[in-house]
Write a structure and sequence with these properties.
By secondary structure, the chain is an alpha/beta fold. It has a five-stranded mixed β-sheet. Strands 5-6 form a two-stranded antiparallel sheet. Helix 7 packs antiparallel against helix 8, helix 7 packs parallel to helix 9 and helix 8 runs antiparallel to helix 9. The two termini are about 25 Å apart.
């Protein structure tokens, strides 16, 4: 069941929420660094610059990275490298990669970067914070800031009382982890967190942004999702508010399907080669649950005939 509920693009909601609330993220997770920054001046996401130093081989990992230019209160420009490690399992060379990115930024752009990591894993003992080596005539000790979301389990009251949007992000993340095998409980928490946003009187834009994040990571089976959506619509009617509309929801689900289509088509091209347009059209006609099933099945494909056999057996033709 849990495998069916995983999304391949789990970094996307983190990237979106970081862009929408970057100052709040810094103030929530890294207050000492945030205190250096003049937030009256606009910050800038350096996506092109980051792509120049990122390795293509690392794109299979599940993490979100943001390189951001900000201004210090004293007037100097500084660069921040924010890394969100979404991978479920700890990574042995994580600290080395943090150092490598920092070094590449300095080498290519002559800019020292403040490196910061948000760790989303479930291993309480994994707490990378430095990369070092020590030889008789040369030594290095590179330290970077880290936040472990798991630590907020013991600070739940603080999260509930916070007005920072990232408190809601952390609560959604923790409850997603806690309910991997308790999906009915996850549905209840999903509804509870969304109700909290309305109760706080947040602006419509904030509720929409956070709803999108919560909905993206707190995945439910179709039946429970339908129950949740009915409860949510009734709640909005009682509140005389409708920030998240049915049309928006349908559009979001369509977006999910398009993402799944693109992912499956790319994977199939790697497994069996270029696809005829007719087969591409057949794949695009599949429902979201069929696309997810094909995404698992294609790992065993070695030729185009394997795909054609699967489509005949599973696409209702």
């Amino acid at each position: 069941m849990t495998d069916e509920l995983e999304r391949a693009d789990n970094d996307s909601p983190w990237k979106e929420i970081l862009e929408a609330y970057f100052p709040q993220a810094m103030q929530f997770f890294f207050p000492q660094t945030a205190a250096l920054i003049n937030w009256d001046r606009p910050h800038e996401f350096l996506d092109k610059e980051f792509q120049q130093i990122a390795r293509e081989a690392e794109q299979g990992r599940r993490y979100a990275d943001k390189l951001v230019k900000v201004w210090q209160i004293e007037g100097q420009e500084i660069w921040l490298l924010i890394h969100v490690e979404i991978q479920a399992k700890p990574e042995d060379d994580f600290a080395e990669r943090m150092f490598s990115y920092n070094l590449r930024i300095f080498d290519k752009f002559s800019k020292p970067a403040i490196s910061l990591a948000i760790l989303c894993d479930t291993d309480t003992k994994w707490r990378p914070h430095q990369y070092s080596y020590n030889y008789p005539d040369t030594k290095l000790n590179f330290e970077f800031g880290t936040v472990k979301l798991l630590d907020y389990q013991n600070r739940w009251a603080e999260l509930e009382n916070s007005d920072n949007p990232f408190a809601m992000v952390v609560m959604a993340h923790l409850k997603t982890q806690e309910t991997i095998k308790k999906l009915g409980e996850r549905k209840n928490w999903k509804f509870s967190l969304i109700r909290k946003m309305y109760a706080r009187g947040w602006q419509e834009k904030d509720i929409r942004n956070l709803y999108r994040f919560i909905d993206w990571i707190m995945i439910l089976p179709k039946a429970l999702e339908a129950e949740f959506w009915q409860d949510f619509k009734q709640f909005e009617q009682e509140q005389s508010m409708s920030y998240v509309t049915t049309g928006e929801r349908i559009g979001y689900e369509r977006g999910q399907k398009e993402q799944a289509q693109n992912l499956v088509l790319r994977q199939l091209q790697k497994r069996v080669g270029e696809l005829p347009q007719s087969e591409c059209d057949r794949i695009k006609s599949l429902a979201l649950n069929q696309l997810e099933a094909l995404g698992e099945a294609l790992l065993d494909f070695t030729k185009l005939d394997d795909l054609l056999t699967w489509l005949t057996a599973n696409s209702g033709e």
